[in-house]
Amino acid sequence: MSELRFEQVSVRFGGRRGMTAVDGVDLTVPKGQVVGLVGESGSGKSTLARAAASLTPLSAGQILFNGRPLRPKRGEHRPLQMVFQDPHSSLNPRMSIGDSIAEGIPRAGRGDAASRRAEVERLLGLVGLDPQRASSYPGQMSGGQLQRVALARALAGQPEVIIADEITSALDVSVQGTVLNLVRDLQRELNLSMLFISHNLAVVRYVADAIAVMYLGRIVEQGPAEQILSNPQHPYTKALLAAVPGNGSTGLSPGMSDPAVQAVSDAEPADPHHPPTGCRYHLRCPIGPLVLPGRDVCREADPEPEGHSHAAACHFADGSLMAGKAGLL
Amino acid sequence: MSTSKTAATAGMAARWLAALKTPVGAVSAAMLLSVLTLAVLAPILWSGQAEEINTRAILQGPSPEHPVGTDSLGRDLFFRLLVATGLSVKLALAATGIGVCVGLVLGAVPSLLSRRIGRLVTAFVNIAVAFPGLLLAMFFAVIFGVGQTGAVLAIGFATAPSFARLTQTLIATQSERDFIAAAKLAGVGRVQRLIRHILPNIAEPLVVTATIGAGSSLLAFAGLSFLGLGVQPPAYDWGRLLNEGLNDIYLHPMAALAPGLAVVIAGLAFNLFGEAVAKTLGAPTPFAGKGAAPQRVRPTAVESSADVEPSTSSRESSAVLTVSDLFVSFPGPAGPITPVRGVSFSLAQGEAVGVVGESGSGKTQTALALAQLVEYPGSVTASRLEFLGQDQLSSPSPAKRQLLGTSFAMVFQDPMKSFNPTMRIGTQLAEVAQRHQGMNRRQALARAADRLRAVRVPAAERRLRQYPHEFSGGMRQRAMIGMGIMGNPALIVADEPTTALDVTVQQQVLRLLSTIKEENNVAILLISHDLTLVGQVCERVLVMYAGRIVEDLPATDLAERSLHPYTQALLAAVPDMETDRNQPLAVVPGRPADPSNVPAGCAFASRCPKADDHCTREDPQLVQQEDGHRVACWHPSRGTGQRVSVELKLPAAALQGEAS
Predict the structure, then answer these.
(1) Chain B residue whose CA is closest to A138
(2) By the CB < 8 Å criterion, does A53 face chain B?
(3) Which residue of B lies nearest to A240 if distances are taken between CA atoms?
(4) What total number of domains does chain A contain?
(5) How many CB pairs lie under 8 A apart between chains A and B?
(6) Among the partner residues A40, A104, A245, nearest to B532 by beta-carbon distance
(7) Once rounded to an integer, what is the mean pLDDT over residues A114-131?
(8) H/E segment holding residue B492
(9) Is A230 on the interface with B (CB under 8 A)?
(10) Distance from CA of A280 to the nearest CA of B (A)
(11) Is A275 inside a domain boundary?
């Protein structure tokens, strides 16, 4: 079981006046599964990814791989690789793509130059590129091709987990499809576990088995993809889903009646340097204290993800369950 | 993979060679070459003549026998000057070498060692940068005694801190890049990362700085020798000769002027060469500053060709904007690049039209051309360009500027770049009204507050006094739209207004644009790469490919009645919330057309499943189909309504297509 597990992971930047980019995240990426991580910019998804790749130190909690802390030593095999957003910046412009990929091959099984070249050619073939292009430089290739090269480099490390951070958002729409197909095929073929980060829900829906939604450094809802998409519990997840163009949102007609709902939906995203008290979403929440009276609990208490379906961190998620509890009391 | 390494060096060499093609570069390179040749050859060839003592010709002025004169021992100064080149250049290069090596080490150490030691080194470098070089020279003169060694070390160590600081900065910028993170993940150690990944990427600016540094060292050395702190007799360099010649400057001025001139020429050779190379390395490409700080280029008229005129006569009467045969081109290294190739359309009052296309399809350049904001080397031509019935092709007049200023609004992708960061939002908004509507400051600010409220910015009065960086991305974009509606715009051109924003905020901005359109009857031209988004907001959609409109259709037809294979392919390639997860996504084979090299015939032919010989030979015109629907295709046919058409489901072939 090669699973990646985040346990109460926090990442803080700066000193006393710094900010907490990731705040007590619990998340599991099971073996051979794709977990999609969505949320807006500043929500901490990329920081979480970099923390998993040990590019950013944790300030609390731990990240376990197969139950053991992930602390790779020099020259040791690294079970986790990452693919970045901008392929133009993730490949060294002064190194041929063949050399870049060869660098990713683990030192232990590296072998001589000939076997390394053969491995590079195999990897290029695997991502659908002509093996003859190993001597090309990044400047001579298109964005879509470079993203394939970046994938090949990640695969060179024989990883069991791949972290894909917005890998299609810098690509043109006509190219995005080919990269998504490739990622999906490879993931299934090699039985990789994957943390797939994107702000585009439609893209996440297409690749992910499970979805986690992040808001201001916390995971506010997580669960199996179909359930999250068909029956979202957290109001932020609902807002994200409604914002997908063409997703049945009656959308742009300005005929919203309630001025309170209107004000809340026009509210600014909260500042991660000064997160609001209580539920972090309450200033933008259409079912929160600014719209409905008597919901002061959202201002005061931090909602726990326990006790709701999909681990939704909302006081008023899954109304029936809460009502049931109330009935019991 | 040694061949690949030579290819990289070849690329670098090509850029250095480009520097030689500029006049300054060519002259300075020639100067530098002759100085270096002289430095090597002169001591070998003329040492004898330079040291030949002739007591009968002491302290003579210039004569045919001695062009520069002689010194106090009757030695020929011209030959001494030539031979001195060797020592002068050698010492300058040695000092630069020390400076570069020490600087590189000091600059690289912080990235290799632990954070605390790194910080110490950085602090040391920062103090050293502030330390005067001359003081250092005197210090070393005391330690090593007056002479060459002390001077070389002094100048070397004096140049090292600034070089170290540059190295540190360059390394820091490179360390941020993703490929360094990727190398870290691949288990590449710190030293290897520095050598393999960072140094090659910062070599160019370092080499340029070192070249310029050599020129400065040369001057510094001449100065030290002149002061008597440098080269000691019997050795001599230019500074020494200058020192000796200065005693009799009123009798034999040439004896002092000639070494001075030599120092100036050699110093200039190094400095100018370094500057010339630095300039070509930093030269912007024509496409570099897309949309940033645009300079106006006025569109010029071309002969009208009647057949491409949009035959939308019913719309003409109420047209806000009419464009025919719009071309935008930029000079390129291999002939002109034409990102917009004959675009014709019109916009009715209160109509929302979307322009979609991939990067390089010319959609942004079209928008900039309409706003007359195409950057300088670009040129814009059209057979017709009318805004509110006013011809925009003739020379500009105050009335026209007024009309554009109040009736035409533009919203850019990155609102951070389109506001002046040093001015308050209120001042920037009020400027529009003060300039074009003759309001005074108070009235204009009141109007600005009103407009901010109209775009639903909370606490508008307080917000007016804030600076752009105090606004969040979505708020800034709202303020930008607010600025657009300071006047009474008839048209808002929005270029990817939501691409930089989060999905939930994107929805807010689009809702706002729709509201403004409804309430004020404003026409909107919405440029985006996202078909679904455009279909949601607009009534009509223009699909652009390789600088042309390939299809113009009502938004309601988008899903099932599109005619162009490119439109259908785009629709199928983008996953939405209904996409079948068990099917591979449809892909568009090949890659987008390169605006600098548009193929003959239909530009989409190489990626099109329906393409035949006719398509590769002749370019289809945009032809009227039925009410309002225009398409440029030889084989237009209805999309089947199925998301994945059979022809497009060729992933293997597609992979090859993009790979080749």
Answers:
(1) B8
(2) yes
(3) B504
(4) 2
(5) 224
(6) A245
(7) 90
(8) strand B491-495
(9) no
(10) 16
(11) yes
Final residue of a domain: which of A182, A215, A248?
A215
Alpha-carbon distance B26 to B61, whole Å? 35
Residues B67 and B6 in one domain: yes
Number of H helices, E strands in chain B: 24, 14
- Give the residue from B585, B526, B560 showing the smallest Cα distance to B637: B560
Q: How far is A177 from chain B, CA to nearest CA, in Å?
A: 6
Residue B222 corresponds to which tokens in the numbers above?
């001449």
Q: Residue B147: inside a domain, yes or no?
A: yes
pLDDT tens-place string over residues A190-237: 999 999 999 888 899 999 999 999 998 899 999 999 999 988 888 889
Contact B507 A266 (CB under 8 A): no
Provide ipTM, 2 decimals: 0.82
Q: Are residues B192 and B341 in the same domain?
A: no
Phi, psi dihedrals of residue B376, rounded to the nearest 5° = -50, -55
A positions 264-323 inside 8 Å of B (CB): 265-269
Q: Which residue has the higher pLDDT, B144 or B107?
A: B107
Query: Which pLDDT value is given to residue A100?
Result: 92
Q: Quick one: pLDDT at residue B97? A: 95
B-facing residues of A in 165-194 (CB < 8 A) are: 172-178, 180-182, 184-185
What whole-number distance in Å separates Cα of residue A270 and Cα of residue A259? 20
Q: Which residue range is the domain that position A69 belongs to?
A: 4-215
Average pLDDT over residues B504-510: 80
- pLDDT tens digits, one per residue of B21-65: 888 888 999 999 999 999 999 988 888 888 888 888 777 777 888
Task: Decide if B254 contacts B248 (C-beta within 8 A).
Answer: no
**What pLDDT is stored for residue A318 in this prediction?**
59
Shared domain for B275 and B323, answered yes or no, is no
Mutate one of A56, A92, A121, A241 to test the B interface: name it (highest B CB count within 10 A): A92
B520 is a domain residue: no
- Chain A residue with Cα closest to B535: A246
A40 and A147 assigned to the same domain: yes
Q: What digits encode the pLDDT tens for the residues B122-161? A: 999 988 888 877 787 778 778 877 788 888 888 898 889 9
Which of B481, B498, B515 is at the close of a domain?
A: B498
Q: Name the residue facing A145 among B570, B654, B659 (closest C-beta).
A: B659
Return the CATH number at B438: 3.40.50.300
Q: Is the pLDDT of residue A257 over 80?
A: no
Cα(A172)–Cα(A150) distance, integer angstroms: 17
- Percentage of chain B beyond pLDDT 90 is 16
Q: How confident is the model at residue B298 (pLDDT cuts 50, 70, 90)?
A: low
> Smallest Cα–Cα separation from B151: which of B239, B84, B32, B274?
B239
Domain total in chain B: 3
**B148 with B159: CB under 8 angstroms?**
no
Report yes or no on A192 lying in a domain.
Answer: yes
Whether residues A53 and B185 touch (CB distance < 8 A) is answered with: yes
Phi, psi dihedrals of residue A214, rounded to the nearest 5°: -110, 140
Q: Is residue B645 scored above 90 in pLDDT?
A: no
The identity of residue A282, as a single letter, is H
Task: Tell me which of B568, B571, B577, B656 to substitute to probe the interface with A (most A C-beta atoms closer than 10 Å).
Answer: B577
Judged by CB atoms closer than 8 Å, whether chains meet at B514 and A253 is answered as yes
Nearest CA-CA distance, residue B123 and chain A, Å: 20
For residue B510, being part of any structural domain is answered with no
Residue B512 lies in a domain: no
Nearest CA in chain A to B458: A267
- Whether the predicted pLDDT of B99 surpasses 90: yes
- CB of B633 within 8 A of CB of B620? yes
Nearest residue in chain A measured CA to CA from B569? A174
Domain of residue A161, CATH code: 3.40.50.300
**Do A62 and A133 lie in a common domain?**
yes
Residue B81 sits in a domain whose CATH number is: 1.10.3720.10
Supply the Cα-derived Rg of chain B in whole angstroms. 34
Contact at CB, B8 and A96, closer than 8 angstroms: yes
Q: Which residues does chain B have within 8 Å of residue A117's beta carbon, measured at their own beta carbons? A: 1
Domain that holds residue B610: 546-660
Of A124-133, A152-161, B303-312, which range is least confident?
A: B303-312
CA-nearest of A70, A32, A66, A79 to A210 is: A32
Is residue B550 classed as helix, strand or coil in its secondary structure?
strand
The answer to whether residues A305 and A174 belong to one domain is no
**A144·B591 Cβ contact <8 A:** yes
Q: Which residue has the higher pLDDT, A46 or B648?
A: A46
- pLDDT score of A254: 44
Q: What does the pLDDT read at residue B639?
A: 57
